[in-house]
Amino acid sequence: MKVIGIIGAGSMGSGIAQVAATAGHKVILLDSSKPMLEKAKQSLKKILDRLAEKGKLTKTEAGTILDRIQFTDTLQEFDSCDLIIEAIIEDLNIKKQIFRELESIVDKKCILATNTSSLSVSAIASACDNPQRVLGIHFFNPAPLMPLVEIIPAIQTDEAVLKEAKKTIDSWGKITVLTKDTPGFIVNRVARPFYGEALRILEEGIADVATIDWAMTEIGGFRMGPFTLMDFIGNDINYTVTETVFKSFFYDPRYKPAFTQKRLAEAGYLGRKSGKGYYDYSENANNPEPNFDKALGTKIFNRILVMLINEAADALFWNIASKEDIDLAMTKGVNYPAGLLRWADEFGIDNCVKQMDQLYDEYLEDRYRCSPLLRRMVRDKKAFY
To answer: The sheet that has 26-30: what strands, in order across it?
Structure first.
């Protein structure tokens, strides 16, 4: 059984450690902060005890899983690792420095992976003398509960390394999708309009926060509306991801962030964690009721859905991933009610093109340009499935 190293004992790192240890691996969890390591240890014990209480594990199994995890603040402990997953702050220079240090410690066969959600895997790999062993393995939070993992080969990644890493993550019971090393990979790229277009509709005064959320959950069937979800993620985090994707795509207007979200983040209205965001989470809060106008709700839902479909189609057009992996990523990574490309077939690809063109004609903004793939499919009378 492989020895797995995890760098970073935050919620993501300790979550990945739990997954690997549950799959039977010896895990070495590293953090430079001893208080953070202690916090991770207590948190993991609490989670595993709770799973035992619920009957999902026996007490013995819970104890064994925790015993498989070694907590350390010393990088030298990684000398026996077969796979190392880095899950620290999204800072390219810090990540490169750690990967450089790792190479002087680990065996030549050890695979080095980054859990980055927005940085270039190829840039991280460039810090290594042997970049062929580096790739991206992107989990979603919370790692033990979210089934999806995006596997991202860098330009330099060896095919055998890619196969071995995928095989390992598959053996942990995860659903893996293969994606090109481009900004946002699949999920964080394709999901941008779910937030961005909702914010645009709000800023234009077409509908308020509660009405947009109602339209997406009641009419669209999404588990959470965009504003509830942004408050859940944190406006600071969600804004930063949008801004990173926007800059990484050379300021493509499709990914342009919203001033509304920027100001909320600046004001400290981060959502649930700060007690206030788009909604007020204080005890006696009086949040507005939605406008239950079905025609308005349908208009909102259609506009956001078409933007999402257009983004998914463009990801396929640029060969970011296969159609199956794009749909799988959106249903398993962010719990969409259906795969967007399958949804396009149901909605009508001609309807998608028509709505995108209507938006473009109205705004004359490149944000609303229709994917060439959708146009070709209408012309050739094709469907995704």
So the answer is: 69-72, 26-30, 3-7, 83-86, 111-114, 134-139, 148-153, 175-178
Structural contact between residues 40 and 71, judged by C-beta atoms closer than 8 angstroms: yes
Alpha helices in the chain (DSSP H): 11-22, 34-53, 59-67, 92-103, 121-125, 159-171, 187-190, 192-203, 209-214, 226-233, 235-248, 259-267, 294-317, 323-333, 340-347, 349-363, 372-379
> Cα separations (Å) of 120 from 123, 144, 168, 371?
5, 25, 22, 24
Kindly report the pTM of this predicted structure: 0.96
- The catalytic site residues sit at 117, 138, 150, 188
Torsions phi, psi for 337 (to 5 deg): -65, -20
Q: Residue for token digits 């937030």? A: 195
Cβ contact 331:184 at 8 Å = no
pLDDT tens per residue, range 252-305: 999 999 999 999 999 999 999 999 999 999 999 999 999 999 999 999 999 999
For 137, the token pair is: 């393995």
In the numeric block, which tokens belong to residue 189?
A: 């790229």
Q: Across residues 74-94, what is the average pLDDT?
A: 96
Residue 348 region by backbone torsions, left for phi larger than 0, else alpha for psi between -120 and 50, else beta: left
- How far apart (Å, rounded) are the C-alpha atoms in residues 81 and 238? 33
If you search the block for the tokens 């797995």, which residue do you land on?
A: 4
Give the C-alpha separation, 354 to 333, whole Å: 29
Token duo for residue 382: 């094709």
